[in-house]
Amino acid sequence: MENVGIVCEYNPFHNGHAKQLSAVHAGGGTAVCLMSGNYVQRGEPALMDKWTRAKAAVMSGADLVLELPIIAAISSAEGFAAGAVRVFSALGCIDTLCFGSESGAIDGIMSTAKALLSEAFPAALKDALQEGISFAAARQRALESLGADASLMKKPNDILAVEYCKAILQQGSALQAMALQRGGDYHAASADTENPSASFLRSQGDWQAFMPKEALAVFSEASRYSLQAGERAMLSRLRAMRDEEFEALPYGSEGLWRKLMHACRKERNLEAILQTTKSKRYARTRLMRMLLCAYLGITKEDLARPAPYVRVLAMNAKGQALLRQMRNTSTLSILHTGERPADREYYALETRATDLFALFSQDKEVPAAGAEARGRVFREDG
Question: Over the stretch 191-238, which tens digit does the pLDDT of each residue have?
């Protein structure tokens, strides 16, 4: 291994993440992490801000942390993976994309990805969707009808692994795919010190047994953020939106935007909006991403647009050396946090998202606006 890319959220960073970084270093690789910023893929604010999480990652073994552009970070699994592969490919010096999966079976993962891209798959999926089942269930049934291994589309890390491989194939990327078997249960509600569930950790106050001491030290001093803390801010935006703004939201096809709009104008809290709108066909995470896009003012056109640049959040000396090389090989602009890009429209979206993230703070005083311009890259000299 040489330069290894890892797509991550580190929400929060834990022992399982440290094991992945150790595996990269054991193979002689430099670990380049492409981390979601202040919002995560399931459509919620991150537990801590992006600068805090990036610092914890570098203190715990990452060499370079870049920010996954927000338009990829809050996309569906397909858009999330495609955006990450596009960034890593554009950097021009990343050799391998390393990801965790429940199966760890890279041949099976790649085979399933190829089946999803086959000419026969769209018709098989259409037939399954006509039965009124969810998209996820229809996708599994379509794969089964084509003789593919649908079991790899049942667990979250395997699903994302398939999407990474699909994106590599679709984009003709030179990235090599590397699957590491992930122990433990991604959604476990109990403790596993070696492979803890991030969902479990977010519900706990004591993290001492579940993460490296370096990350624990960083997180112990950090402010926390939550969806509940910013619920009224979201409701204020949702109740003020016009019909055409709901219609412009991502993921609102088949009239879903209208159903969501009516719920937002009627219900008294986010949970009631979700309960009123969800169905077998529309997953809760899809609705959460729609609500988050509404709050942030992100349209389906915004989400379809490739990010014009990628930001540096944190690095050590090894990462800094690679960054110098990357500036000569990348076809994508690379900016430090705090730098203002030429693309003012995307920067305005980025700045707005960071300012609105502050309203999810659990602190008594809401952080001031303007954090995007004040942000600074963390450098570890050790």
Answer: 678 888 888 899 887 898 899 999 999 999 999 999 999 999 999 999
Architecture of domain 3-226+306-380: 3-Layer(aba) Sandwich (3.40)
Dist. CA 289–CA 43, nearest whole Å: 4
User: Alpha helix locations (H) across the chain?
Assistant: 15-26, 50-59, 70-73, 77-91, 106-116, 121-129, 135-145, 156-171, 198-202, 213-220, 231-240, 243-247, 256-266, 270-277, 284-296, 300-304, 317-329, 344-357, 371-374
pTM over the 0.90 mark:
yes
> What residues form DSSP beta bridges with 334?
310
Instruction: Give yes or no for a contact between 79 and 303, defined as CB atoms under 8 angstroms apart.
Output: yes
Contact between 368 and 358 under an 8 Å Cβ cutoff? The reply is yes
By percentage, how much of the chain surpasses pLDDT 70? 97
Torsion angle of the four alpha carbons 289, 292, 296, 299, in this order, in degrees rounded to the nearest 10:
30
Q: Where are the domains of the chain?
A: 3-226+306-380, 228-303
What is the Cα–Cα distance from 248 to 299, expressed in whole angstroms? Answer: 5
